[in-house]
Automatic annotation (TrEMBL):
InterPro entries: Aminotrans_3, Aminotrans_3_PPA_site, PyrdxlP-dep_Trfase, PyrdxlP-dep_Trfase_major, PyrdxlP-dep_Trfase_small. The keyword Transferase applies. It comes from the Bacteria. This is Aspartate aminotransferase family protein.
């Protein structure tokens, strides 16, 4: 893990001074291909003039107005844009400044909805192992990353975890996709019954798992089955698309491919593409009407809700993506990226899985392909891959060690939507070199 304190006595990170398309340039002039978009953020690359101009225009006109006094045109236009394209039933938007805040808002909206409905016993949240929903206390509590939660356990609200839809690790030998999905849906149902259906508020899941397990897409109609279980017991479905949403999978909302709509949907990262910090929780009409028709307001709030400059930047990001048909490029380049990685690594003794959707791709490393045994986390292979990649002018997002003892080291790739076929080849070549360098440095080769 890299330290993120500033004014640290010993500076270990290069100083980023400029951006140029898909590259970041440091103070020595060295260029890095941003093959992870930071953490799946920079979907337009780093120097989009249209977005820069939109920020300038808005800042000159009105940078910020507090939402207890005003709404603003960019906030309203962005909310319209998001809702017009959202899965059915999501009709309102609650803007925040980042991913964790979006998740906190979703948890509290779910809870307040049931309080307003007179079902105040509903307080339990069920999520999945090997998930990440943010680092603030509520989001951390529902996340299923044991390592991140461990030091803070006494401070976390109670949350419950079921198995993830992580085919590479969780699907049993000889188990069909149907049987696998049914087993997972049954596990959720059993958990709801065990807790008492009248006490369960919501089930929370990443549509495509991001940081904790590396771009793991759901199998078949897993989410249809999950939606049906939630509906049977009046449990809300919260989908976290903070990493996987806003076009990353080739669809504006990742759940479009699942054919279901959640009750609450969280987005961030690609929404503002890193040009401004912004996130949002999309809210169903049913939840909004119950809260607004009840006590009249959502008992929550932050200073920068609907920040005008952030909304103006995000709106322009979304216009650029639509007008330049970048989601088509995400689909095409994503296919190419996975195909190239699979070609390169088909015979690789230490690469167990290549997976993902669109330009959201994970590569999982294992010590033994047959048994899927992970490398010893003491080798810190993922940190070595990051170091070797940075030396070669490549940013990738490696995570792992053995989270819950159940996932190995992996590399997450999330390059900007503007990348070309040549860029994809460069990324794969540099990554292959970096992995070999890391295996040598760790003494595996
Ligand atoms: N949910 C998911 C799925 C994420 O990937 C992240 C960030 N990696 C978050 C929540 C938290 O977002 P933030 O870091 O902006 O608070």
């Amino acid at each position: 893990m890299t330290t993120v304190f500033h004014r640290a006595p010993k500076r270990t990170l290069p100083v980023a001074v400029a951006g140029d398309g898909i590259e970041i340039i440091d103070s020595t002039g060295k260029r890095y291909i941003d093959a992870s978009g930071g953490a799946a953020v920079s979907c337009l690359g780093h120097s989009n003039q249209r977005v820069i101009d939109a920020i300038k225009r808005q800042a000159q006109q009105l940078a910020y107005a507090h939402t207890s006094f005003f709404t603003t045109q960019p906030a309203e236009e962005l909310a319209d844009w998001l809702v017009e394209r959202a899965p059915q039933g999501l009709e309102h938007v609650y803007f925040v400044s980042g991913g964790s805040e979006a998740v906190e808002a979703a948890l509290k909206l779910a809870r307040q909805y049931f309080v307003e409905k007179g079902e105040s016993e509903r307080r339990h949240f069920i999520a999945r192992r090997q998930s990440y929903h943010g680092n603030t206390l509520g989001a951390l509590a529902i996340g299923g990353n044991a390592w991140r939660r461990e030091p803070f356990l006494p401070m976390l609200i109670e949350a419950h975890h079921v198995s993830p839809c992580y085919a590479y690790r969780e699907q049993r030998e000889g188990e069909s996709d149907d049987a696998f999905m049914q087993r997972l849906a049954d596990e959720l149902e059993s958990k709801i019954l065990e807790l008492g259906p009248q006490t369960v508020a919501a089930f929370v899941a990443e549509t495509v798992v991001g940081a904790t397990a590396g771009a793991v897409p759901p199998v078949g109609d897993y989410f249809r089955k999950i939606r049906a279980v939630c509906d049977k017991y009046g449990v809300l479905l919260i989908l976290d698309e903070i990493m996987s949403g806003m076009g990353r999978t080739g669809y504006l909302y990742a759940c479009e491919e699942e054919g279901i709509a959640p009750d609450l949907l969280t987005i961030a990262k690609g929404l503002g593409a890193g040009y401004q910090p912004i996130g949002a929780t999309l809210v169903s009409g049913k939840i909004y009407d119950t809260i607004v028709g009840g006590s009249g307001f959502f008992q929550h709030g932050h200073t920068y809700i609907g920040h005008a400059t952030a909304c103006a930047a995000a709106l322009e990001v979304q216009h650029v993506i639509a007008e330049e048909h970048l989601l088509d490029n995400v689909k095409a380049r994503g296919e190419q990226l996975r195909a190239r990685l699979r070609e390169h690594y088909a015979q690789h003794e230490f690469i167990g899985d290549v997976r993902g959707r669109g330009l959201f791709v994970g590569v999982e490393l294992v010590q033994d392909r047959a048994t899927k045994t992970s490398f010893d986390s003491k080798l810190a292979l993922n940190a070595a891959i990051k170091r070797e990649a940075m030396q070669r002018g490549l940013m990738v997002y490696p995570m792992g060690g053995t989270v819950d003892g159940a996932t190995g080291d992996h590399v997450l790739l999330a390059p900007p939507f503007i990348c070309t076929a040549g860029d994809i080849d460069n990324i794969v070549n540099r990554l292959t070199d970096a992995i070999e360098g890391a295996l040598r440095a760790a003494g595996v080769r």
